[in-house]
Design a protein that fits this description.
By secondary structure, this protein is mostly beta strands. The chain has 3 helices and 24 strands.
Length: 306
């Protein structure tokens, strides 16, 4: 299903986890979302509990109610949650808006998602309503999983914040445990490294870190070649954390940045619950969360003189 305004064209796939599959600029004819080279826009049928990595084909998924699979508070939660693998019901749609609904199986929650393009500006808004149908509080994680197509030299945009590696064994840029202030971290040789700029694919690097204590609720990327930016804005009460996953040819030979505003940190819900860094859905209540996506573009001739 395609949403369109004078600036943007979004392809939304209710059959592919309700994800945004394409974010296309009508001005620059640029596609901002990443897909693997062999990607085919075909439908699929996956069981709840399918492997995320084995079936990941890019685009913009949501991860809910968990990330890492396993038992949590008496429930068996599946890999990267269940929203990404299942078809969603279309409740309403127009040329510039779509509302999708999914009744979860692993938790007693109905998720309603609305995507609405601004009528005249290069931006859109995503709204979520999480409805708890039970008499118990449900701790959860809701995370954006936005796979962005990148080029060497592109700049990761984060506000003033603290960062730490998700798992040092995965990191190939950060070399020591501990918290630092973005964009600085410490490499394996003890020297300071700058995390802002994407190296080339040939570097074979990869990185994954949490960011928190955000000075403001936003994140994104700036394209070095054109100066164009893709930026997400949100309330920090909705998404207090941003996970940043990068594969610069290092992980499965992919060249991609995954920008992930999230309600919860870390990926292990048990630890997040112990730390008090997990989102909560009150009994028989509905919780609303939202974010806005803005695209700013420049003419190529203007960018050349920057």
């Amino acid at each position: 299903m395609t949403l369109k305004n004078p600036h943007l064209e979004l392809t939304v796939r209710p059959d592919l986890g309700g994800r945004i599959d394409r974010l296309h600029s009508l001005k620059s004819q640029q596609d901002w979302l990443w897909h693997p080279a062999n990607y085919e826009e075909a439908t699929r049928s996956l069981a709840v509990g399918a492997s995320f990595d084995a079936n990941w084909t890019g685009g913009w998924d949501e991860i809910f109610p968990n990330d890492a699979a396993g038992e949590f508070q008496g429930r068996q939660l599946v890999d990267h949650g269940e929203l990404w693998s299942q078809a969603w019901e279309v409740a309403d749609a127009s040329e510039t808006q779509i509302t999708l609904v999914r009744d979860c199986q692993t938790v007693p929650v109905t998720v309603t998602k609305s995507i609405a393009l601004h009528p005249t500006e290069p931006q859109f808004r995503i709204d979520y309503d999480l409805q708890n149908h039970s008499d118990e509080t449900i701790p959860f994680l809701l995370k954006q999983h936005c796979a962005i197509a990148i080029e060497a030299g592109d700049e990761i945009l984060l506000p003033d914040c603290t960062i730490e590696p998700v798992a040092l064994g995965f990191s190939k840029i950060i070399g020591q445990e501990g918290k630092t202030r973005f964009p600085k971290a410490i490499g394996a040789d003890g020297q300071e490294v700058d995390l802002r700029f994407a190296p080339s694919r040939s570097s074979g690097l990869q990185e994954f870190y949490y960011s928190f204590d955000l000075a403001k609720g936003e994140c994104g990327i700036r394209r070095a070649r054109t100066g164009s930016t893709l930026r997400m804005r949100f309330e920090r009460s909705d998404f207090p954390y941003v996970w940043v996953f990068q594969s610069y040819g290092g992980w499965q030979d992919h060249y991609v940045l995954v920008m992930e505003p999230c309600t919860t940190m870390p990926y292990d819900l048990e630890i997040a619950s112990q730390n008090g860094t997990i989102a909560q859905l009150a009994p028989n209540a509905t919780r609303h969360l939202a974010l806005t996506v803005e695209l700013s573009e420049f003419n190529c001739e203007n960018a050349a003189g920057r």
